[in-house]
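Title: Prediction job returns without error message
Component: structure pipeline
Severity: low
Priority: P3
Assignee: unassigned

Description:
Job completed but the reporter wants confirmation the result is attached to the right record. Sequence as submitted:
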Amino acid sequence: MPILCALVGATGVGKTKLSLSLAKEFRAEIISMDSRQIYKDFCIGTAQPSKEAQQAIPHHLVDFFPPTESFSVGEFVRNVKTLLRANPQTSYILVGGTGMYLQALTEGLAEIPQVSEEVRLHCESILAREGLDALYKKVQEIDPDSAQMILPQDRQRLLRALEVSIQTGRKFSEVRNDRKGGLGNVRTFWLDRDRTTLYANIDKRVIQMVDDGWKEEVESLLSNVPLTAPAWQSLGYKEWVSCIQGRISPQEVIESVQQGTRRYAKRQITWFRHQTVAERVNLDEEFEKIFVEMSQKLVR
């Protein structure tokens, strides 16, 4: 199999540095497993790899998908399988924090039943009547496992989880576990570190995003991407829209994104701890030591 390994972990944990070093060492290319980095021109706030990194190591499924369209787990799997078939001699490293992508690729896609128009309209009426926060809380009550891996502002996936649960009478997470067609086991490393350090890194990274021109990126996107586009559901983007429109301050945006990202990281950690068969790697140790040990494991 041309997949060398998978590196998973919470946002901000330090996946990029290690993945680039390993890709260089093994002459591998990187396949992103990040559901937000796919969107074209939504670069800074989704922490897409830098242009320099992408020039040094070929990256796939980054900054390529129209922001006005929805990208499903099934599309991710199909894209990866197509890439693997076309390049059987190339080695790849899967890198990202969207655990559902790795699960679907290795274990197979679930056969999600069709949802009736009646159920669809019922769920959309809940959203229209009670709002997005209420929709998220309802998914949490019905299916906490699904809620762990869906951003609270991700309207599309929240509706999907609720619709399928109502339609089938089963949790969406249970329906998703009825899978077939996976690639099989991929050696997976779960990159982790001390929670206090992780949260501090997240807070610093948000500040760096602002310094890198995140607000200006949003101002540019507003001129050509409608606010109904799925890409705007990425954490922080609608907050910056509110700031640009004068409803909240830049400092409020920063604090909101920092808090939201820490919460999301916590949910990711829970997912990788309980849903993924992986070897834990402590990134608090010396980087060179980690790199050498992982390199040795990958050549065995």
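Comment from assignee: result matches the submitted record. The two ends are 15 Å apart (CA to CA).
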